[in-house]
Amino acid sequence: MPDKDTKAMMSVEDTPGGKACPNPQDLRPSVFYSIKFFILCHSLLQLAQLMISGYLKSSISTVEKRFGLSSQTSGLLAAFNEVGNTALIVFVSYFGSRVHRPRLIGYGAVIVALAGLLMSLPHFISEPYRYDHTSPVDMPQDYEASLCQPTTLVPAPTPAPSNSSCSSNTEAQHLAVVGIMFVAQTLLGVGSVPIQPFGISYIDDFAHNSNSPLYLGILFAVTMMGPGMAYGLGGLMLRLYVDIDRMPEGGIRLTSKDPRWVGAWWLGFLISAAAVALAAIPYFFFPKEMPKEKHELRFRRRVLAASASTVSKGEDSPSEKSLGASQEKHDGLAQIAPDLTVIQFIKVFPRVLLRTLRHPIFLLVVLSQVCTSSMVAGMATFLPKFLERQFSVTASYANLLIGSLTIPSAIMGIVLGGVLVKRLHLGPMRCGILCLLGALSCLLLTLPLFFMGCPTHQIAGITPQPGDLPGPELFPACSEPCSCPLDDFNPVCDPRAHVEYLTPCQAGCTSQVAQEALDKSQVFYTNCSCVAGGGPVSAGSCDSACSHLVLPFMFLVSLGAALASLTHTPSFMLILRGVKKEDKTLAVGIQFMLLRVLAWMPSPVIHGSAIDTTCVHWAQSCGRRAVCRYYDHNLLRNRFVGLQFFFKTGSLACFALILAILRQQVKEEGTQVTVSTSGPQQQLLASGPGKKPEESSV
Question: What is this entry's stated membrane topology (predicted)?
């Protein structure tokens, strides 16, 4: 509200010496009355908040393995924090500066920290992770339980008791764990609602008008590092074993390359929640209003003084123009929101929404951003899992690649787009051309990704081997004398034939050999009746033949992310310059709401469902389908990259239509200018040289 800014500015009376008589509030030796300290606190809070929001995406495949979730369910879980956020974000425009904004930001941060603690709770209420389901519960987990043993020496399996225990206890615990994570994600979205909007408006209200853009730029620059830090944290935490706080007595013999490895996914949530809780403390000490910042930053003043010499005395300076524009903007907003009750605001909102959506440029820009955001949401959620499956890399390494390559590239793209718009003084037409070129280049870089991969290696009993008849049996005939458990999963690889078996039992192996090394121990199985020469076979899955392609793949993905991010600032400028002045703030709010509803919420579910359709072998848990153990790599690559290609094509089509509409508008404006100038020229000829037409300046 303009009155509050006026009061804050009038609280200081200028003296002839050019200095100011300080208000008693200014004499308080408190950093909480400094807008610079608020910017520092808010940068750290948004950094921690984005880190906790993005951490689930870095550990999505680990959570799937730990709790037996499909990709569709994990995608829904990742998208669920947008539900609480979208439901409440509209009311932020209504409350504005009526509330104690710093305190409300603090409450939101406390809710985010509690949501992080709640996300880690399933680890503590669940039983310890058992990667070997065949050994008895009271014995250490080892590799011997899944060896081939003659059927006569082992009693027949009795599935009835296990099924009854599944239906009564295990399944109820599974539902409780999944429910807790969904509630935590909803709370995470609710707590995030006040943090960014109230923080930005608080800075804009009490910072000096010339300093405000610089402060917001610093805030966004620090904030953008949050997702990269989330992937980096995920890369570090997933190197640790999930039950690091309750390790079995004999230790574990798994390595992070083993497909059964589950990292300490819960530890990252605890660290992020602690960071958010610490960052929330200062907000309970900031005042509702602080004195308006009186001084410009020194280096900024020198730059403006140098540029002032080039401005004629009759012209308004750019800072005065921006001050007047911001005053007009505040006046326009003051006439809309503060005078309405909540009920009136809810009634008016649909009409303003429809009026804004009727603007063709606004609608097409939002649709293009919906396509881009859908691509980003799917990539951010499932790219780590895709890299794990397609190139046989560990979850930790996949996260480190994304955090060190893709995220910085996207940040550089956003910054470069803003610099180009600023330095080249791009108007709407040139902004549209820049967006079109960025989207086209990004689309072309997607084409090689379809061919960077290789098919799934042979898996005995699952993928048909050369020479097999159609529809092979579940187990090869050579393992029939063995009593192989149906639900066991302890993969071994025959390195010579490059064939993988689900367990040593299915390979017909009767003995094991452990080779101890300095840094790790390698287990081999021998006397295998299903393997040529009797083995040996090594524990763990077979490595992908395409693992060397992971770095070129990530280079193309990162370059595409930079080019897609290049369109971020120009597309925003198309919105800000295309809608009415009084609708700008609400248009940006509507834009973010539509992006959440149409992109960030459905896209992870769409990508997860597409990934599930490529599964060739599902694990079973209590009679239900749990996590997928093997995918058809060619199908996985074509459908995952194909979805990216589809969304990029949609974005390109929207920018092409925007450019066509802008060209049509330029032609119409040119026609109007020609008509308006021809009339005054005829009047000039008729009236003589003594009279000047009023419109001749057009």
Answer: Multi-pass membrane protein
